[in-house]
Amino acid sequence: MWWKETVIYQIYPRSFQDSNGDGIGDLEGIRQRLPYLKDLGVGAIWLSPFYKSPMKDFGYDVADYCDVDPIFGTLEDFDRLLREAHALGLKVLIDLVPNHTSDQHPWFLESRSSRDNPKRDWYIWKDPGPDGGPPNNWQSFFGGPAWTLDEHTGQYYLHQFLPEQPDLNWRNPAVREAIYEAMRFWLRRGVDGFRVDVLWLLAEDLLFRDEPGNPDWRPGMWDRGRHLHLFTEDQPETYAYVREMRYVLDEFSQPGQERVMVGEIYLPYPQLVRYYQAGCHLPFNFHLIFRGLTDWRPENIARIVEEYESLLTPWDWPNWVLGNHDQPRLASRLGEAQAWVAAMLLFTLRGTPTWYYGDELALPNGEIPPDRIQDPAALRQKGRLGEHGLPPGRDPERTPMPWDTSPYAGFSTVEPWLPLNPDWPVRNAAAQEKDPKSMLHLVKHLLRLRQDPDLLHGRYRTHQAANGLYAYFRGEGFLIALNFTDREKALDLPQEGRVVLSTHLDREEAVGNTLRLRPDEGVVVRLG
Ligand code: ISL
Ligand code: CA
């Protein structure tokens, strides 16, 4: 099945390629860069939202599910992009944002117009609490209460994100059918599936109970962390909604042409894997991001891999992620040398990897002057969404793709919406293309190598995870050895083999019973 053998490449449309000189990336820009993606060797692209939107959360506030925002182009531009991607053999996934709409969506404008409007029940309205304040203690992801009072009708509406992103009422079958119709609109056009935004937040507790306090919360951490989310996350009803979405996808699926659902789900493994059973093809596994990159040691990474592998049934296909538009850049979290090692890890684990645009250049977090901050989450609460002394907000990981040394790095002809990485004159795709020892070339080599059936489908088995070294087998044919340190290491091999790829891109050679690894080196060994 294609989605088990592909690599998904995430594009943040605002930041990939501007084609009309307004400093903001667009669909036509993405189309022009398809050859780069084909040459890189990825098999699918996922586009973050490009729907009509007031852009309060840069497209995650949708005002029309069935149209393209003029900033990004037109429906014709989308059709052309899809057609050309398909002609190159690239699948296209789009972002579905079903949990909430924009407050400017016609559904919400109707819903808020009066208490007896037929669309009133399309959103979640509640009377004020006994003290006249919000109905309960739920907090939004972006700071402050998850409730905003609508003066005109005297009730509060729920928003897990910005007040400009009211939550739809998923218990209402008419709401569900409306979202499914939007899915069909894009499936008919030919999209290969959806990355579904905040899939684990679709339903909330029907009794609207207060959430219990989080004993680990400290002042300075984000508001959302004040409570344990027993009543706003991963409610049992959600599984039924996931199943219904899967039925919609299956209406349009044929063998070899499955339309797939990739779910954004930040949950512990035992809860995460239940989404497979509900019908989600690939519930995003973010554990490397939130437990791995924060504690980059072989013992820890091996535990993250083994726990996951042990919970999957033969029907569940694994997947791995190292970065996205909500998380600091990989290269800034691990340092460049270990980012290369991490790339080798991601592309040699069992399962479908998702790669974030620019990480193939080891793009670092952008430096955003205070007067250029764009992210609403950063503007509303100090610190970042996830603490750890990380830079404020999500702009640093959303800076424009540096293509070459022409003005504005070939991204645009004017100053881009976010600043370029300061080192763009040397760190850009053209420069790395010319340098056979660049990270770009490492990624290309890895993507070609992983076409081998053992790397695609062979089972995973840990060989060693200690002493700064992580080594594992894939199928019968491969051993991958990763040096997590900046010191030389040696590893005993069970049998002889051949180094077929080093992260240093400078050796291919036979190895005997001892494999020597240089500082920050990862290698793929073909056994036998
Ligand atoms: O980044 C996070 C966890 O480390 C979250 O706070 C993240 O914002 C959340 O998981 C939801 O993300 C998704 O929905 C948001 C949107 O702002 C994000 O960009 C999107 O990925 C609301 O639609
Ligand atoms: Ca543009």
From TrEMBL:
SUPFAM superfamilies: (Trans)glycosidases (SSF51445), Glycosyl hydrolase domain (SSF51011). Keywords: Glycosidase, Hydrolase. The keyword Hydrolase applies. Residues 383-402 are annotated as: Disordered. Residues 10-388 form the Glycosyl hydrolase family 13 catalytic domain. One of its GO terms (biological process) is oligosaccharide catabolic process. It comes from the Bacteria. GO terms for molecular function: alpha-amylase activity. This is Alpha-amylase.
